[in-house]
Amino acid sequence: MSLAIQKDVDFSAVATGYLPPVTAGVEYFNFFNSEDSLTRNLIPNKPTPAKNGSPLFNTNGQSFLLTNLLNFINTGIKLTDEMTIITVAEPTGADGFFPTWSTTGSPITNGGSFTSQSFMRQSATTRNPTLSLSYSTDGFITRQNLSYGVSSGVDNIRLRAIASAFSQTAKTSSLYDLTNNKNAQAPLPANGVYGKSGNILLGSHYNAAESSQGNLYAAAIYSRMLSTTEINQVYAALKAYYSKRTLSI
Fold it and tell me: How far is CA 179 from CA 2, 109, 115, 156, 166, in A?
């Protein structure tokens, strides 16, 4: 049985049963606040996540260190036509990017077989996020990528809450740097179709090695494109949760 818990209640020890403030379409929700949290999903009756390698549980008790291709999480949640993915993370590498989430690619002419089809990553130097969405205009004979980012200027806050959302029906996508209250949008071409192959991975590209790493604190996945208001509701709950742990997101 699941229980809706107020956002200001301390549920750090709860392993199952937590529902975020926006529940419609939620597929995955997790705080990485215990050693066994890698393979749990706080949303009932969803696929059990799997860990790759041995991600290091950080001494702050609130995050795991993920390293691309070696130590990451397979959520078991597949990409769909409508999607919102929210992460709380910080890149910790000296350079490169921390691929906060990505999906398995599909065998197509342009882009190779089983490369990361879509992903969001944060720069290790600027901390800014970039969203890349795979799409095709020729029935997936070839692949194109819709890529854009959000720049925070001189603001180089490392730990950030980032939301990426897109909709095939609305033919649009959005990227939110929630921590810095900045966002960007990009339309899908009129005849474009988003790629949607494979499970969503946290902390890694599928097979493209990047010398980068990062700490993952929390993640939420929805099988629909949330409105800005809904995304802000989820962010407010996350922000309140981490505020009680003296962490600013």
Answer: 29, 38, 30, 11, 20
pTM assigned to the model: 0.88
Domain hosting residue 148, numbered range:
58-243
The CA-to-CA distance between both ends of the chain, in Å, stands at: 30
Digit-coded pLDDT (tens) for 152-168: 766 678 899 999 999 99
Tally the domains of the chain.
1
d(CA 133, CA 123): 17
Does residue 183 form part of some domain?
yes
Secondary structure letter of residue 209 according to DSSP: -
Residue 212 lies in a domain: yes
182 strand-pairing partners: 177
For 84-123, the pLDDT digits (tens) are 999 999 999 888 888 899 887 554 444 444 455 788 999 9
Sign of CA dihedral 78, 47, 223, 36: negative
Distance between CA atoms of 152 and 172, rounded to whole angstroms? Answer: 22
Q: Is residue 220 part of a domain?
A: yes
**Placement of tokens 């291709």 in the chain:** 69
pLDDT of 14 reads 43
